[in-house]
Amino acid sequence: MNPVKVGLLGLGTVGGGASRVLSRNAEEISRRAGRGIEIIRAAVRTLDRPNPTGIPLTTDPFEIVNDPAVEVVVELIGGYEPARTLVLQAIANGKHVVTANKALIALHGNEIFAAAHAKGVIVAFEAAVSGGIPIIKAIREGLAGNRIEWLAGIINGTTNFILTEMRDKGRDFAEVLAEAQVLGYAEADPTFDIEGIDAAHKLTILASIAFGIPLQFSRVYTEGIARISRDDVTYAEQLGYRIKHLGIARRTESGIELRVHPTLIPERSLLASVNGVMNAVLVKGDAVGLTLYYGPGAGAEPTASAVVADLIDVVRTLTADPGNRVPHLAFQPDAIVAVPALPMAEVETAYYLRMLAVDRPGVLAEVTRILGNLGISIEAILQKEPKGGVAEVPVIMLTHQMYERQMDAAIQQIEALDGIEGQIIRIRLEHLGATD
């Protein structure tokens, strides 16, 4: 049987990795897929660079998506446009699509999957979330018999590297970020990583396949790590917690929580020991309980591993009736339900608070009075001793669970006190099954 012919959009880090994996493991892949897989063309930005792959190149990606010989288009250029236009054109031409583009799926996936369903083609996107970890397949297929209750994940390697270095080596945020850029873990403009946008793209996808809801990136509460200090990391350790930047999606009676933010988690939590640039996702199903998926979240061959796995899945199903394929978002298209996403004010969680208090009697009493009046109970207080005649001292509190709106009101009132200097640092706290 003739090999399936593939066109690549992008031959950079991941595209080059996919080419190498397909070449190196050609026999194994053919045995798994039932047919060979051959890259016949690739689109690149410029023809000035060396081409060790030997793949015929073009600078016009539309030549790939409009080529009648190409059966599967692999989109690896990233971003929103022209990726969206190219993918929709490939679908309109009856071609299957494999993509590693989380931003594209998070923002335009509903449109893309509707077009693919109407045309009877597959859009595979395992590589869009957590690189080499097969988390999409695990939730969509391996946990298909479960009602997913919640998931939480370290889904951005850059932020995890920074927080790990701050904890292990006592370094400041800005210093570690600069090193991450030198090492290639962070882009020259690190905004998408540091501000949580990249993680929000991925959480959007995970929540959709976990709960059978439309992709709704605009409803994800997103907060980055730039305000986390070395002191916060140290205080969290002293209290038995670690700070991780998490994406959290939880099913509640009122709606779905969709949030990305720094989070204190118990040091005994499964996610607490995930360090460096590694990713991990914790999923709670009603039947299976807690399951953890761990591995590299980026890199040429880890991500290529997911791209090639998607290609094999596409090849396996080329002759299958479209109605018998695994649905793009795990649930049948007519069973996707628009469950409301909870506003952050209605989310229930516990909190870490760090404030700078004037060193005089009665200040802490005023703070606890405000918290008590708002129905907020304190779990632990850590008050540092003043040093060298300093007039203000840090006070750290852990609270029990409450609605975010209660904490918003408390912070507003506490910051208005004469005895409190500057802004209060708030970090949400989750146990994630550590006490179940």
* Overall body shape: elongated
CATH topology of the largest domain: Rossmann fold
The beta-strand count equals 17
For the record, the CATH class of the largest domain is: Alpha Beta
Strand count, sense and barrel status of the largest sheet are: 11 strands, mixed
Which consecutive residue ranges, at least 5 long each, have pLDDT under 50?
Answer: none
* Cα end-to-end separation: 53 Å
- Number of helix segments? 14
Whole-number total of structural domains: 3
**Mean of all residue-level pLDDT scores:** 93
Strand content: 25-35%
* CATH homologous superfamily assignment of the largest domain: NAD(P)-binding Rossmann-like Domain
Description:
With 436 residues, this protein is α/β, with parallel strands linked by helices. It has 14 helices and 17 strands. The chain has three domains: 4-132 and 300-334, NAD(P)-binding Rossmann-like Domain (Rossmann fold); 135-296, Dihydrodipicolinate Reductase, domain 2 (2-Layer Sandwich); 347-429, Alpha-Beta Plaits, CATH 3.30.70. A hairpin with a 3-residue loop joins strand 11 (278-285) and strand 12. The longest helix has 18 residues, at 102-119.
